[in-house]
Design goal:
single chain, mainly alpha, three-stranded mixed sheet, globular, cell membrane, transmembrane helix
Length: 316
Amino acid sequence: MNADIAEYDNKTAIKEFILLAFSNSQDIQIFLFVIILLVYITCISGNVSIIFLVSTETSLQTPMYFFIGTLAVLEVMFVTDTIPKLLDNLISYNKSISILGCFTQMFFFNGLGITECYLLTVMAFDRHLAINSPLHYSTIMNKQIFVALDLVPWIIGFCISFMTTLFTARLNYCGRNRINHFICDLAPLQSLACSDPFLSRRITLIAAVLANVIPFIFIIACYIRIIITICNIKSAEGKQKAFSTCSSHLAVACMFYGTASIVYSRPSGSQYDKYIAVMYTLFTPLLNPFIYTLRNNDVKSAARKSWLIKKVLEKT
């Protein structure tokens, strides 16, 4: 410990980090810039379309679609927290980010990610109620309840993120400041610290359990009950109708936790971390609107009759 302190004293505290991102040739970086920009625009457009439909179509004014709209808001914020900086990094020679900017990005990145974990849990609970207690659903899931259920994931997500960010920000940083990633995340920053990151890593581990394991177990429990109920439905039409109400959410949850499991199953600091991170940072938010549009008849119907241009023309 004394050696660590002495070593720290002999070094100057850093004022910025360098995000190495994808440090390939200039041609490859320009190619990545174009691809990621197109995907980013498509992602924003798709999620904003979902928000627009849920906000304007009376047929979608239900708790299930309210949660879908909230998920779309989350995805817009999630990609906007990371992708603009990545795009700037790809075409700029200056790849630095201030310490404040780095920890701000990390706070929102983790806060929004954890919020999504708990929102998917709330959506699973909503589908569980709709299928297992259809007669009491409207009574249980009243406006006050579903608004409260919509707020709770945000509170939990950002409280957990605040704790992990705080303990990581309190570490001493000196000497090394090059992050082999395109975002400021917990593990890369902890590995750069001059002081002992043991406590910060333990807090991160606890946060990972709270953010990923507990919600995942709850989602699995909900879908076990849902599957049992669907199997007990006698008519094939009833089974298909019941499954169609939760198939979109199940697909999104599987995709979200599937990419998360790949990330957490790999050794920390792997050179492939940043490539895998693109999957859940950009492509998962990109695919969500298409899943809800292609697999949900109500959303497809609303999309067909509610074009933005039509709405604008009607108001002029």
